[in-house]
Amino acid sequence: MKSNFRTALAFVLLAQPGLAQEATPQAVALQDAAAQAVSPHDMGRLLFETNCVACHGADANEGKSGDIRDVDFRTVRKATGGGYEDMPEFSLTDAEMQAIVSYLNALKS
Ligand code: HEC
Description:
Structural class: mainly alpha
Oligomer: single chain
Distance between the termini: 28 Å
CATH architecture: Orthogonal Bundle
Bound molecules: heme C
Strand content: under 5%
């Protein structure tokens, strides 16, 4: 359980806009360890619940954008990269965005 908590903490810290560029060596090492220990689905869930639920809802079908459960990588990259005026920009790695896509797609079934 202890390592799960550390993993969650690493993602929470690294997913904040602006913080990723200033990640300390320890944080980077933690992120690497976390990426190996956690499935993409769980990583996507953590990232989504931390950064996106407030606007998109726990089931990813609320708010102005409506249902986003069948999104693809390109759309998530555009949306999190400042492509929509009403949505804040996020600093996410490709692996993190792919994890969010996996999680959202799985919510559909
Ligand atoms: C402050 C509220 C807010 C937060 C936080 C937020 N979004 Fe959004 N998002 C929006 C709004 C509003 C739109 C619709 C923008 C528009 O259509 O102009 C949107 C649109 C999107 C779209 C595009 C949907 C489509 O079909 O084109 C995706 C994908 C998306 N968001 C994913 C995310 C993800 C992933 C996160 C977390 C990393 C996130 N959003 C966090 C408000 C938010």
